[in-house]
Amino acid sequence: MINIDTNLTTFPEKKPKIVDANYDNSKMSEQDFVKVLLADLKWQDPLNAKDISDFIDNTVKLRQMESLSSIENLTKLISQFTNSILNASSLIGKNVKYEGNYTYVDNGQANIEFKLNAPAKEVNISFVDKNGNILESKQLINLNGNTVYPIQIDNSNLQNGYYKINISAKDEKGNSVDATVYSSGKVESIIRENNEIFAKISGNNVSLDKIFEIY
């Protein structure tokens, strides 16, 4: 058998003062308003008819505040995303330099750059077509790290289109050295994937922060 002590007093006679009597409610921020509502809910007596009415009223207000806040945040996100899409769409059809190893050859010519993450004793560069055939190759020695090196393609036998640049580098101990390639290409379209905006270049998704020059 469970006994309930009906003589227990759960709520004090007076509620604590949340704000001064002369407080200007028009200056109250959303955060302060939520604080007042939460404090009011805490001190309401669920056995008192008036407090029950106040409780329901304040709960509705709190839900409205949450909904308005959520709608406002959602509106901001939609606005930011829309602006990003519109800004990015201006890149469509533009020639750009970007971080990636697919470069466009026009009239047999293309300018490419690369940078090693560390010094390398030996660097092998290959120029590959879409079928994986190596069209040209070159070997360089004793290159510095964090230095941008240009590569110029000049071959009148090449058809216009995209070609891949492969770079393999090793240091004095034979360990692999990572390389970053900077290529030229044309932005074909702007797409969204996993809430991120990409430029499609040569069929590949390129993050906008990987594009560093438009010409």
Descriptive account of the structure:
This protein has 215 residues and is of the alpha+beta class. The chain contains 2 helices and 12 strands; from the N terminus they run ααββββββββββββ. It has helices at 30-43, 49-89; strands spanning 95-99, 102-105, 109-116, 120-128, 134-143, 148-154, 161-170, 176-177, 179-193, 196-201, 204-207, 211-214. Strands 1, 3, 6, 9, 10, 11 and 12 form a 7-stranded antiparallel sheet that branches. A hairpin with a 5-residue loop joins strand 7 and strand 8 (176-177). Helix 1 (30-43) runs antiparallel to helix 2. The longest helix is centred in the first third of the chain and has 41 residues, at 49-89. The chain is flat. The model is unreliable at 1-13 (pLDDT under 50).
Core attributes:
2 helices; disordered N terminus; 215 residues; alpha+beta; 7-stranded antiparallel β-sheet; 5-stranded antiparallel β-sheet
